[in-house]
Design a protein that fits this description.
By secondary structure, the protein is of the alpha/beta class. It folds into 2 domains: 140 residues, 3-Layer(aba) Sandwich (Rossmann fold), CATH 3.40.50; 54 residues, no CATH class. Helix content is 30%, strand content 15%. The protein contains 8 helices and 6 strands, in the order E-H-E-H-H-E-H-H-E-H-E-E-H-H.
């Protein structure tokens, strides 16, 4: 299970301002984020109220059954096509993996509303793809919903390495370079990449992670 916490609301509003988003669709998750109380109906309605207080309109909201399930999310977004199409951006209350799944499913700018903190193991036979390291210092708002820290084998933040050739990754030669994908998606959305993404603050990812959901919550933490 992935544990998430609310993101700094000032940064969320700043992301929306960057693309001039006055109309926003909100997506939550019926699994981990709902259990953590960060992506359930209550959390979505709190975000909705905060967005409306900031002068924005919420075109609709939904809770994906499993936000990190690509096929399920594409089905969910098709069901909400009209509400998403009328929005300027999508705010996603899920882990970083869910943010990227939503970003793969819609054409609108997608921004994270939560920080992924740590992963609780799920023991089951299957095939998985790593897309988020839950670093606690998310850059998906700057990289069009594609995580360079995880999907670039070298973890490069600010562009491809010297070994990239013809758009292909030097390490995983059958895959497109992560930074080529990022640049293309930003261009398709009419956005420009920031001059330089700051170095990661690794102090935000301390191990081992722990959380006590029975402890009194800090009234000010993560509140809109």
């Amino acid at each position: 299970m992935i544990i998430t916490k609310p993101r700094d609301w000032t940064r969320i509003l700043g992301n929306l301002d960057e693309v001039g988003a006055k109309r926003v669709f909100i997506m939550g998750c019926g699994q981990c984020a709902s259990v953590a109380g960060t992506g359930d109906e209550k959390a979505i309605l709190q975000a909705k109220a905060a967005l409306e207080q900031s002068g924005r309109e919420v075109t609709g909201w939904a809770i994906g059954e499993v936000a990190c399930h690509l096929a399920a999310m594409r089905l969910e977004t098709r069901k909400r096509h009209g509400e998403i199409e009328s929005a300027d951006a999508v705010l996603v209350l899920t882990c970083g993996s869910g943010v990227q799944t939503v970003a793969d499913s819609v054409d609108k700018p997608v921004f994270p509303g939560l920080e992924s903190v740590f992963l609780g193991n799920v023991i089951r036979h299957g095939v998985f793809e790593e897309r988020c390291q839950m670093c606690g210092d998310c850059v998906l708002d700057l990289t069009a919903g594609i995580c360079p820290v995880t999907t670039c084998p070298k973890g490069l933040l600010n562009g491809p390495c010297g070994g990239m050739w013809a758009g292909k990754c030097e390490v995983l030669t059958d895959r497109e370079c992560t930074h080529v994908r990022i640049q293309r998606r930003l261009a398709e959305q009419g956005r420009t990449r920031v001059a330089e993404i700051p170095a990661k603050d690794f102090s935000k990812k301390l191990k081992p992670g722990s959380i006590n959901m029975r402890a009194p919550k800090d009234e000010g933490e993560g509140k809109p």
